[in-house]
């Protein structure tokens, strides 16, 4: 009976090793796809609960592998050890994918692209450098990055707020969790004192880098996200919604980036934004109006207008700002948080009225 069990194990192990190159990246992709479907179909709080489960499974799987390889766990769990790397790969893929999706929806790519690239590189390297990812130091380093990024997503939902204090709290909490985690690993001979020093150096580099990116306003303002924006001739409040008036465009005009708005002298120009925020979250959004000065060859601040938002609406909390006597030329309005983090921007060109405009109305 024991002989049959060992023979069966060796056959399964040989089969696993034969298809390992396909299985590991497949689990990564599967984890990413699961995230995309999850966040599109269920409420964010439920999705975050699922991710907490992934987070715990990832940490437990890494500990199991290290304890098993150190001889601290019975060989009866050899089947679990065989497939544990797949579990780590799946949970890493799911957690990195979730981080990418959350930050992607909240990011202005023009500003936050360095951080988005960092996450993408980690997702890609998790597959290309899978043999390095089997090392304890590499696994724990990636796990710490995930811990910090994940907590910076979760805490705003828990406390219904955003800002530097919550981000710093996420960083401190991630260090406390990592201290406890390394303590359990330090009980193994495979994690020597020298390795722990190297590990802590990597952890602090990640900690300092994340804070530098945040205070440079490169990390986007989770959990806010810009759902819709545009430039209009008029915005009228109608019951619980808005009536937006804009120039009618042809199908091909809609494909051209940017927007041209024809206005009479002294006429108002409105910029509308719909921003998603979790339930009970209240904050202030700023519209920074900038004009491109050809003489200075640079963007010049022209106005800074603001409005409050309250979360809970799936399509975003709607708000707008307007300016009168807008001069012809290139304009842009940047939607920012109180801390200066960029949610998105609306670029457009102002021209004088050349012919009769055809106005259409849109209800939001």
Short description:
With 364 residues, the chain is an alpha+beta fold. It has nine helices and eleven strands. The chain has two domains: 2-215, no CATH class; 225-363, Immunoglobulin-like (Sandwich), CATH 2.60.40.10.
Shape assignment: elongated
Number of separate domains: 2
Report the major sheet: 5 strands, mixed
β-strand amount: 15-25%
Q: Count the strands?
A: 11
Nearest-integer average pLDDT: 77
Q: Return the string of H and E elements.
A: HHHHHHHHEEEHEEEEEEEE
Helix content: 40-55%
- Total helices: the number is 9
Task: Give an account of the 3D structure.
This protein has about 375 residues and is an alpha+beta fold. It folds into 2 domains: about 210 residues, no CATH class; about 140 residues, Sandwich (Immunoglobulin-like), CATH 2.60.40. Helix 2 packs across helix 4 and helix 6 packs parallel to helix 8. It is elongated.
Q: How are the SSEs placed, and which strands pair?
A:
Layout: H1 2-18, H2 20-41, H3 44-69, H4 78-106, H5 109-128, H6 136-159, H7 164-186, H8 193-215, E1 225-232, E2 234-238, E3 241-247, H9 251-255, E4 260-263, E5 269-276, E6 282-293, E7 298-310, E8 317-323, E9 329-336, E10 342-352, E11 359-363
Parallel strand pairs: 4-10
Antiparallel strand pairs: 1-5, 2-3, 3-11, 5-8, 6-7, 6-9, 9-10
Helix pairs in contact: 2-4, 3-4, 3-6, 4-5, 4-6, 6-7, 6-8, 7-8
